[in-house]
């Protein structure tokens, strides 16, 4: 059954891509063998016409879901025709390096735990068709430690869509110090994962200020609201920095690390000094505060802590814990 459907969709796609003029349902029904075998030629019985129409609409929806742009054209005599222009269905070559492909693979793994698994897989297949090299595996691991970003919160998907569509939302939120949740009216800006937890940054309409919300503290459903945003969305939303400052992660000293050349760009951005060591390594001096050990572990074998000794010991302990599973 799956092979028969795939063959039918392929034949329909070839017909729509190969025609120079819009084809009517009747013409497509008579041209595709699977339709003829199932329903007979055009202008059959009412029952067969209805069944064909339902299958044809499903097939069109499936092809559009796969990325085929199908145009609906009405002729001068009022007849509806369909075609897929080649120029509308041709993507330019796409070139991704290993790090970019790894980022896409990590994003796809995040979606696997939400209800976007099908969309993520379809997007990667389209990238393959557009020129992503076969030897680059977006799902593959590119280091000794494979990053995992869990998505267990029910609020993740509706908030992600609200951020994308710029839609205000309402949800009940329980602060860590509160016994009961409170209703919050928020204009969502961005979602970001930090220390294994997802956070939403946005404009809190009730308080008239920017706020960051931990998704695990959202209770009940996230409801969308109509209307436009009342506050301007900043160009850069610093979710991690905001949460870190609330958690008291303020650097009060410096640490010295070795970092593999071409890796760890977030660390390089925070470095107060960088010195090339040769043999593919650099030496960095970075601010050292609470939580730095957990952050350094995320870079796996690309980072070696030189000093202070207590930071090195903390990182080694964390790596050993990861290795033990």
Topology of helices and strands:
Layout (H helix, E strand, L loop, with lengths): L1 H17 L6 H7 L1 H7 L6 H20 L5 E4 L5 E4 L14 H15 L4 H13 L26 H10 L3 E5 L8 E13 L2 E8 L4 E6 L3 E7 L14 H8 L6 E8 L4 H6 L2 E6 L2 E8 L3 H6 L5 E5 L1 H16 L1
Antiparallel strand pairs: 1-2, 3-4, 3-7, 4-5, 5-6, 8-10, 8-11, 9-10
Helix pairs in contact: 1-4, 2-3, 5-6
Order of helices and strands: HHHHEEHHHEEEEEHEHEEHEH
Mean pLDDT: 79
Number of helices in the DSSP assignment = 11
- Rounded to the nearest angstrom, the radius of gyration is 27 Å
Write structural notes for this entry.
- The protein is an alpha+beta fold.
- Helix content is 38%, strand content 23%.
- The protein has helices at residues 2-18, 25-31, 33-39, 46-65, 98-112, 117-129, 156-165, 239-246, 265-270, 292-297, 309-324, and strands at residues 71-74, 80-83, 169-173, 182-194, 197-204, 209-214, 218-224, 253-260, 273-278, 281-288, 303-307.
- The strands form three sheets. Strands 6-5-4-3-7 form a five-stranded antiparallel sheet. A four-stranded antiparallel sheet has the order 9-10-8-11. It has a two-stranded antiparallel ribbon with strand order 1-2.
- Strand 5 and strand 6 form a beta hairpin.
- Helix 1 crosses helix 4 and helix 5 (98-112) packs antiparallel against helix 6 (117-129).
- The chain starts with a helix and ends with a helix.
- The relative contact order is 0.07.
- Residues 141-146 have low confidence and may be disordered.
């Amino acid at each position: 059954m799956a092979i028969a459907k795939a063959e039918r969709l392929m034949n329909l796609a070839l017909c729509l891509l190969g025609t120079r003029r819009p084809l009517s349902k009747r013409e497509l029904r008579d041209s595709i063998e699977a339709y003829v075998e199932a329903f007979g030629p055009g202008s059959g019985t009412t029952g067969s016409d209805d069944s064909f129409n339902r299958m044809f609409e499903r097939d069109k929806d499936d092809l559009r879901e796969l990325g085929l742009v199908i145009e609906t054209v009405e002729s001068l005599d009022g007849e509806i025709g369909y075609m897929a222009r080649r120029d509308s269905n041709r993507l330019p070559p796409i070139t991704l390096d290993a790090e970019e492909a790894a980022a896409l693979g990590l994003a796809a793994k995040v979606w696997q735990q939400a209800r976007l698994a099908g969309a993520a897989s379809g997007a990667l297949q389209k990238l393959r068709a557009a020129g992503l090299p076969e030897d680059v595996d977006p799902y593959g691991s590119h280091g000794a430690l494979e990053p995992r970003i869990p998505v267990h919160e029910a609020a993740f998907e509706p908030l992600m869509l609200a951020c994308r569509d710029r839609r205000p939302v309402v949800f009940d939120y329980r602060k860590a110090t509160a016994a009961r949740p409170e209703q919050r009216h928020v204009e969502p800006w961005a979602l970001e994962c930090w220390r294994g937890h997802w956070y939403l940054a946005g404009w809190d309409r009730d308080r008239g200020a920017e706020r960051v919300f931990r998704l695990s503290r959202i209770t009940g459903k996230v409801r969308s609201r109509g209307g436009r945003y009342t506050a301007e969305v900043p160009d850069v939303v610093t979710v991690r920095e905001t949460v870190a400052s609330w958690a008291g992660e303020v650097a009060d000293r410096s640490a010295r690390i070795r970092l593999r050349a071409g890796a760890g760009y977030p660390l390089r951005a925070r470095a107060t000094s960088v010195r090339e060591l040769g043999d593919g390594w650099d030496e960095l001096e970075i601010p050292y505060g609470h939580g730095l050990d957990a952050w350094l572990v995320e870079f796996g074998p690309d980072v070696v802590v030189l000093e202070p000794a207590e930071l090195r010991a903390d990182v080694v302990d964390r790596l050993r814990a990861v290795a033990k599973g």
